[in-house]
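Table S7 (text form). Paired inputs.
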Amino acid sequence: MAYKWTRESIEKFIYLYQEHECLYSVSSKDYLDRQKKAMALHDILAKMQEIDGCITVDYLKKKWKSLRTQYLQECRSVKNSKKSGAGVDDVHCPKLWCFDQLKFLHNHVQFRQSVTNVEEGSDDASSPLSTEKVPKKPK
């Protein structure tokens, strides 16, 4: 049976994860040390198993990936709402309840630039989204 996460258990998990910088900070000297990362995860596991003994390391990794993804999605939404030229009132307000607790990640993540395959100033007729019919090339 899978563990049912509560707010309190997620808060504790985030707090414990934050204590182990080797798990999330690429600038940490221990970030590439698999043994230290495994020891850190087992330390978190031992403390989380006090709440429920059925929690596993894989379950913790899955939960962390989910929390980190949600946090990054919220950050991206905030960033995109500021970029659009919207007013102060129109800036996205994060809906993730643990957003503030995950802010320690902000200095440890990098947002990738989006890439487009559409050239600037390209002719709209050659655009794949164009509704205009383009004649087929003869065979």
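Next pair, protein 2 of 2.
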Amino acid sequence: MEEKKTQCESEVEIPSVPVIQFYPQLYKQRYRFVEDLVYRYEPKKVADLGCGDASLLRQLKKLSCIELLVGVDIKDEHNLEMDGYYLRPYITQRLFPRELELTIILYQGSVVERDSRLLGFDMITCIELALRVAETYSYSVEFTGVGEPPAGAESVGFCTQIGIFRKNGAKAAESCASEQREQHVYKPVVTISFPSLQQEKYFKTTVVSEVCKQVKIMRMEYLRGLKEQEEGREPSNESDPRLLAPMLWEGQLYTEAEKARIEASAKPFSVKDKFYVPLQRLPAYVRLHHLGVSEERIRSVLADSGTLSSDGSAVAIDLHDPPEPDDYSDDYPDGDDYPDGDDYPDGDDYPDGDDYPDGDVDYPDGGDDYPDGGDDYPDGGDDYPDGDDYPDCDYHPGDEPGDEPGDEPGAILIS
């Protein structure tokens, strides 16, 4: 029997199957396909049916055109709440808020059930979820896909096939809406609101930050011009590279039209030790111009900041930054680096009359370098108090006799 089995196994040849690898991975290609559609059509309301772990939603929340992002999945509430954790705003999104509002909602529910809260959405995606839409609802269909087949297998088609359904006219949408009114089947589990410039506190913070940045850049340019005049040099028309850095970071190198708009506005000036930027000039700068703030709006935002001139027509700051505060005549209050007359507070390098605080050689143990009376550490027989070279039996096990077995090498537990 064994001989027949061995013979049979030797006669069977398992054909090698080539492994097809996709780069980027197919799921990333599918998400990128959806992103491209969002870039092309700029929908404001997007829903993902069968959202899974919300990976697609995490990608779509970065797109500035979307104002409402909804995910629907049948999974339990706890898992949906965990998915919602990764959809929250980043800290940087509070410092640099979106221009438009964004609300993200995760619903618990089945895609085979209707919920009227999904009416009126501009785009609905079903990634990795089979869905059929009948022609009854007046959709046009475009078939495409991602994951191109290898050479010689083109007839197989895309690895991931995609159908794009578009509504034909407004009447179809109206008829669909009339069939489904106030049917709230899904259970809302997570609702997240993102900071945006539509909210007054974030708008004011952004305006103040942008005004301060532009005023400081103008002051640096102004001081550079004064220095060139003092040195008898011709004024330079080239921007200081230090000033270009923030603009390069934000993509704010000016076009000729933007430069002309700025040059046509009132110029900054100085009086004694104060530097003034007329409010009339500030809306000419790209970011503030894009925000649509007027001179009056800037004045109202800066009213409580203490940076306005006495007549409220300009931002006023010191022409030169004040020197860094120094509480002492040198680095420390004692005439040298420490308050004792030398480098340490004891009259020499340590408070004991020699280099260390123990009154004998270098340490307080009365005869050697540590207080154990016989070696370098306080354990009375070796270098640490545990019977080996380390103090707790938990560090570097196995290095010296006396360690307890079973400790993880190099592991440190902090509690």
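Residues 324-356 form one domain.
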